[in-house]
Structure formats: C-alpha cells, structure tokens
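Quick log. Single chain, no ligands specified.
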Amino acid sequence: MKKPDETRLTFLRGVLAAFASNGQVVHYDEVRRMCRFNKEQMGVALGNARRALRKGEPDFCAIVVNDSGEPGVGWWRGSTEWPSELRRVHQYWAKRRRLDNPSFRAVYGGLPS
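-> predicted structure:
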C-alpha cells in the first residue's frame, strides 16, 4: 500500500476543517473521493490527521461518518464520547473561521497546525 503524501494529508485536514467549521459531518467515502485516497490510504490518512492534532485540539475525525450517519473509525456504536466530541469540533472550527488570529489565540492558546 502506498502511503498518502503530505500534500494530500494537508488537503484532508483542510477538507475536514471546512466541513467542521460549517457544523457538518461528512461521509467517509465522500471525503475519500474528494482527497483521491483509496480505502486503505483513507484509514492511514485519518490516523495521521489524528496524530497531527495539537494538545487540546478536538479530534476533527469525529465528523467522518458512515452511510448510516454513525461515527467512523476510532469511535464505536453507542459511544457517549462521540456526540460531545462532535460538538467540540464544530465549536472549535467555527470559532477558527470567525475569529481573527489574535482573538483565537487568546481563547485557545495557539492556532491549529
């Protein structure tokens, strides 16, 4: 399996941040096609996106759902953590979209990488 390159991983982060900042979820296959990953690369890419999160940054992989709207890989059916993490993700990225850099840093201590 070919590992996804850094440019496509950066693009994936941007796609996830864009959906999250609008309070949306995205289907796994939809984001996979947008980023031009095969199924194996998508799993690796989401894992890499998780590892790239700064301390305290919400896990924006929470917005990736399957066709039935259930959380994707890394979450489990009936998880009580997923809904609260999804809210955190939407709030964090919505503020990132609305606030200028100094205001966002004042609230969160830094900018997402």
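DSSP finds five helices and two strands in the chain.
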